Amino acid sequence: MEEGVNNSPNGRPPPPGFNQAYLENNQPVGGAGNIASVGIVGQQPSAARADLWQQTLQAAVAATTQPESRRRMQSRKPLRQTPVERNERSLLCLTVQNPLRRACISITEWRPFEWLILMMICANCIALAVYQPYPMQDSDTKNTVLENLEYLFIVVFTAECIIKVIALGFLLHPGAYLRNAWNILDFIIVVIGIISTVLSRINVQAFDVKALRAFRVLRPLRLVSNVPSLQVVLNAILRAMIPLLHIAMLVLFVILIYAIIGLELFCGKLHSTCVDTSNGEFAQKEPSTCGLAPSAYHCEPSSFSSAIHARNNKWICSPNTTWLGPNNGITNFDNIGLAMLTVFQCVSLEGWTDVMYWVNDAVGREWPWIYFVTLVILGSFFVLNLVLGVLSGEFSKEREKANARGLFQKFREKQQLEEDLKGYLDWITQAEDIEQLNDDDEHGGDEHLVGGVGGGIGGDLDGDGVLDGEEQGVEEQQRSSALIVQWRFLQRLNRRCRRGCRRMVKSQMFYWLVIVLVFLNTLVLTSEHYGQEPWLDHFQTGANLFFVILFTMEMLLKMYSLGLLQYMNSQFNRFDCFIVISSIIEFVLVYFEFMKPLGISVLRSARLLRIFKVTKYWASLSQLITSLLSSLRSIISLLLLLFLFIVIFALLGMQVFGGRFNYDPMRPKPRANFDTFTQSLLTVFQILTGEDWNTVMYNGIESYGGIGSLGMLVSIYFIVLFICGNYILLNVFLAIAVDNLAEADQVMNAKPGEEDEMEVEGEYEEGEYEHGETDEDGLDLEGDGEDGDDEVGGDGEEVNDEVVVGARPRRASHLTGQSKQKPIPKASSLFLLSHTNPFRLFCNRIINHSYFTNSVLICILVSSAMLAAEDPLQAQSYRNTILNYFDYFFTTIFTVEITLKVIVYGLVLHKGSFCRNAFNLLDILVVAVSLISFVLKSDAISVVKILRVLRVLRPLRAINRAKGLKHVVQCVIVAVKTIGNIMLVTFMLQFMFAIIGVQLFKGTFFSCNDPSRMTEMECRGEFITFEDGDPTKPVSMKRVWQRADFHFDNVMDAMISLFVVSTFEGWPDLLYVAINSNEEDRGPVYNARQPVAIFFIAFIVVIAFFMMNIFVGFVIVTFQNEGEREYENCELDKNQRKCIEFALKAKPHRRYIPRNRFQYRVWWFVTSQFFEYAIFIIIS
């Protein structure tokens, strides 16, 4: 028997599931416990034998499909790992067998050593964060302890570096220490740390480089790089570095060109300001640029006393040596460095209008706007958006690779399951063969069984005590049967109740009842506002308790009907359970007065997320929510990278700018500074959003002496932070949104057959690899039968022609220069002209002629320019009179055009008529407005004024004539039609944040203009202040108790305030008002509530970084889909179409080589790469 077992076809050991099932079914028979007694003993009936094999087969399948077995198979990895190849010698002297090197190798490969280094890195970052920089290099006890602790970090990191150098070698061979980028970073930090420590010990004033150790926080990325979603983000960013480098060169080229132009046009123009010649002081409180050009800013009086000086020519526009220029001379075009910095600021769109107006005031306003507008369009709107294209493309590629790896892994797991199941079936077949070899012993086994059973019974029936036992057994059986009946009745009742509850909780009526309760709870939360009546407080408390009870009953009912495990399988149910439990804990703590009803009450607002359950019966919204949820993993990974990035630059900013932003004693210290780790984090995050980042940069430059010193070098910190954070990391949010929306849109728009085909391809079905029938199925799934018949039924030439035309619909005519005319409708036009009428055909040839179309387009453009040239201030001016005659001429042309088109296509009644097109209706509206305004010539009539205003729609008529412009407008219209779901989700999220904001900040944004008064009762009377902080200029002012412009006193105002935050415009001011907010009806206290910054950061990440980018991503996806709709019936894929377009557009490259020897040598020289590089260097 053992030979039969061991000689299995696949040589597999007996499967555990098989042995257990077989032993359980044969346990009463065999007593020996060996294979023979298990496999042969007893003759089983045929039905029982079939049941036995069925149970064994089920056990085998269950053993292969249960999670434990699957995890075991997934954990099956080769036991032998490829040994790490190490160089024979390290540092040219230590061999692999050297005891010192062997010890160092063992230490580097020891896992606790890696954990120790990681803990030291975290401790070093914490020490850098706790360090408090003070002005003038001052220090305290805490900083002294941290500086002494720095020696420990240097010793540990130096020891790590030395151990790794001994173990791996230094540089000269592959696998050496400095052949790894992370090790290079560690080595540089260690060396710089040692040098700075030595220089500080010998009292050499050196630049403080301790902040470079903050880059060690990048090392944990090596540990989390195995996370697939984080790996996708990291690889996408790293792989995009080369294309991003090309884009950076293009951006640098654009900035350099515009900086040179600005240097030539505006050099030295931004230093003149209005000066009072009587005393040489500034004539204005805030100096500004001025000029002598006719349209420049002239020094004019702003008060009565100033008017007297102006009449006496006391004010002049001249360069003042005490005023360096805007932003203390940082914003100008005096040299190439400052010009490039100014141009980069304009490209970033932050403060570029101020620069433009300063230039306009200095040189005039006629033409400088051309410089700045073209700079913004070319540099910001076009070139910098190429970064998004690169990141989106690379992220999509990495996503496809990750999905392909995951699908291939699933396919391998399925193959492994099938192989294991095949092995189990082989063992079952061998067991059947073993049983057939032992058919001769069946009868004896049956006798042994019957004898054994009969002997056992006979032994039990001996003696009188058997009857007594039977009587006692009957009584016990009766009692137990009564309990069993009751128990079974309760079980049946419980099952019926659970079944009924399950039907109820899964019914639509229960679903909508919960939705109604959520809406009512939302209304209760919305009713909370500042200054509400006491009865409303009691009502809200009772209503919240009522809703908590109802939602608790809902949770318990679902747990009872579905079971605890099935209930907890849903993520939304787990979230709902957390909200209910937290609400119960909140009521308990508030009722017993353990805490104020604010902290955990914010969690009650998260209850509003239940409103998203309405997506269950809203397909498009459900698809959007699914797409957003699928982005969470990548978003979380990106947030981890973003957090590490912010921490690094915050620590670096503390070391470079800590305690330096109080450089001007006459001005208060800016709130955006680097004096503490928390404030540094907020400042770096503000720079990432792009709001007032240039102001922070100006303060940093001024803290190091301004433009007259090396302070301009610190601008590199802000430029690198802004570029890497705003243009790279934050654009990944948009790349993720575009990728997920495109994937969700592809799945939603796919036909049922295509979805099946996608599933077949996505899941790596067996037939795709083992059979050759997938192609036929794919062809059947791609189109309907009619298309297939037409294609197969035609001859070879027709098929080829159809393929070419299908590959390039509407574009082959463009290549050949022919225009495709719109056919004349067969219906009669205006009930008079048939489709064969000669006059109608003649009009059709006119309106479809290229000369006519181009002439109308030119007239549209010229008439639009005429509208822009009108004088709105003097309606009866001579210029407007001349322009009116041109308006008559163009209106006549447009009327003739519409008349001809109505004759050709008909008016409205039949298909294809003129008024059946929306763009044609726009043409009729514009022309009708012009005609009616001509009839009603009186401009005093308000209707005429409105009609003349509607003439501004005239440029829109060009949309119907320009194919590309029409395509863009159609994409925008489609996006606007379908963008409602995104607006709804964004509105719901913003509404939830608004309710949280009301609970956090209601009544706390009040303040008195006298900072010493904290309440409205105290803020009365007058107080003394000093103008510009000058003690010699006291001023008496009346105290005023006022509220901030943007506040959270009610939900509506909170929504408006949060919308302002989502635009990034002025959000730091609102942030610091919230941080200074103290209590309700009390004035602000400096940094009273710094943790509330988390609220604004969370809102910006969720709404501004992600949801607002969803809008842009949706427009991008819509534009792509509209572009592909042109090839909707094309049978070639995108790559094949590109190949055909390339072949059709390709032209041979001809090079004309001169025959004359001298000309040939000159030609060879000027076409060489050396000449190209030389000219490039000369240009640079």
From TrEMBL:
It is found in: Membrane. Ca(2+) binds at residues 350, 691, 1065. Residues 754-800 have a biased composition (Acidic residues). GO terms for cellular component: basolateral plasma membrane; voltage-gated calcium channel complex. This is Voltage-dependent L-type calcium channel subunit alpha. The keyword DNA damage does not apply. Keywords: Calcium, Calcium channel, Calcium transport, Ion channel, Ion transport, Membrane, Metal-binding, Repeat, Transmembrane, Transmembrane helix, Transport, Voltage-gated channel. Residues 111-402, 508-745, 849-1126 form the Ion transport domain. Belongs to the calcium channel alpha-1 subunit (TC 1.A.1.11) family. PANTHER family: VOLTAGE-DEPENDENT CALCIUM CHANNEL TYPE A SUBUNIT ALPHA-1, VOLTAGE-DEPENDENT CALCIUM CHANNEL TYPE D SUBUNIT ALPHA-1. Residues 1-26, 61-83, 749-800 are annotated as: Disordered. The chain crosses the membrane at residues 112-131, 151-172, 184-202, 236-261, 336-357, 369-391, 509-525, 545-565, 639-658, 716-738, 850-868, 888-909, 967-996, 1092-1117, 1160-1179. InterPro entries: Ion_trans_dom (IPR005821), VDCC_alpha-1_subunit (IPR050599), VDCC_L_a1su (IPR005446), VDCCAlpha1 (IPR002077), Volt_channel_dom_sf (IPR027359). The keyword Repeat applies. Voltage-sensitive calcium channels (VSCC) mediate the entry of calcium ions into excitable cells and are also involved in a variety of calcium-dependent processes, including muscle contraction, hormone or neurotransmitter release, gene expression, cell motility, cell division and cell death. GO terms for biological process: calcium ion import across plasma membrane; calcium-mediated signaling; detection of abiotic stimulus; detection of external stimulus; detection of stimulus involved in sensory perception; epithelial fluid transport; neuron remodeling. Gene3D superfamilies: 1.10.287.70, 6.10.250.2500, Voltage-gated potassium channels. Chain C. It comes from Meloidogyne enterolobii (Root-knot nematode worm).
